[in-house]
Amino acid sequence: MERTALYEGKAKIIYEGPDADTLVQYFKDDATAFNAQKKDVISGKGLLNNLISEHIMGALAKAGITTHFIRRLNAREQLIRRLDIVPVEVVVRNVAAGSICPRLGLTEGADLPSTLVEFCLKDDALGDPIIAKEHILTFGWASAAEFDRIVAETHRINKLLQDLFATIDIRLIDFKLEFGRASDGSVILADEISPDNCRLWQVGSDEKMDKDRFRRDLGGLTEAYAEIARRLGIDLPEDISSGSAEHTT
Fold first, then answer.
1. Which CATH superfamily is domain 5-83+218-241 in?
2. Is the sign of the CA dihedral 49, 50, 55, 57 positive or negative?
3. CATH of 84-202, one of 1.20.120.10, 3.40.50.150, 3.90.226.10, 3.30.470.20
4. Residue 214: what pLDDT?
5. The whole model's pTM is what?
6. CA 3, 234, 80, 42 torsion-angle sign
7. What are the extents of the domains in the chain?
């Protein structure tokens, strides 16, 4: 059955759902980095992100975090709640890594004095510039009450995820969240949580188990994602669990 695509991003396509309050989120195998300046297609990546995000969203829901996730439809698709997405990306940093290091002269892997929450305008054309609370309120991207809820939920999610990954010997270095408004006006967690938008390091060795394997040409991206899934107790298809899937271009 032909469906209507509403939006296509770097890693996902959003389709009309079966009713007015739902959407279908499709996970692509496309890999991008540095604001899509680097691109590839990695077979199995979308499937793994779908399964991992389903698992994590479910764990967060059990802990009392409201999310857009309803259920997984198949290997690559999820049924999600239709939201009005807040055009702000929330970046949570527990350890210095990524863009903050050259920006502030920090050493990768250095502990931060406390968890740092940053905000970026969700706009690829502008390079997702860093913004402050004052920008968000001045331009009406979120109300003061919405902003406070986003920050409070972000800190709760960070603690829950740190604890979850610690049980599988993984350090949660940093990650990105998005939020959206539901039909009742509440602001809830959206998007995905997977190795695509988290930095995950192996305890003891700091081996990268996330999209930095693509950013830094380390190889073995699907193997790393599959290892995260296995440690989380997720059953994987044979072609993924055997490590046979990788680059298709």
1. Phosphorylase Kinase; domain 1 (3.30.200.20)
2. positive
3. 3.30.470.20
4. 96
5. 0.93
6. negative
7. 5-83+218-241, 84-202
- Tell me the CA distances in angstroms from 46 to 70, 81, 91, 94, 209, one per residue in order: 18, 20, 22, 26, 16
Residues lower than pLDDT 50 in the chain: 243-249
Q: What is the 3-state secondary structure (H, E, C) of the chain?
A: CCCCEEEECCCEEEEECCCCCEEEEEECCEEEECCCCEEEEECCHHHHHHHHHHHHHHHHHHCCCCECEEEECCCCEEEEECCEECCEEEEEEEECCCCHHHHHCCCCCCEEEEEEEEEEECCHHHCCCEECHHHHHHCCCCCHHHHHHHHHHHHHHHHHHHHHHHCCCEEEEEEEECEEECCCCCEEECCCCCCCCEEEEECCCCCECCCHHHHCCCCCHHHHHHHHHHHCCCCCCHHHHCCCCCECC
**Which two three-digit tokens encode residue 25?**
């989120």
**pLDDT in the model for residue 35:** 73
The confidence score (pLDDT) of residue 242 equals 52
Q: Which amino acid belongs to residue 229?
A: A
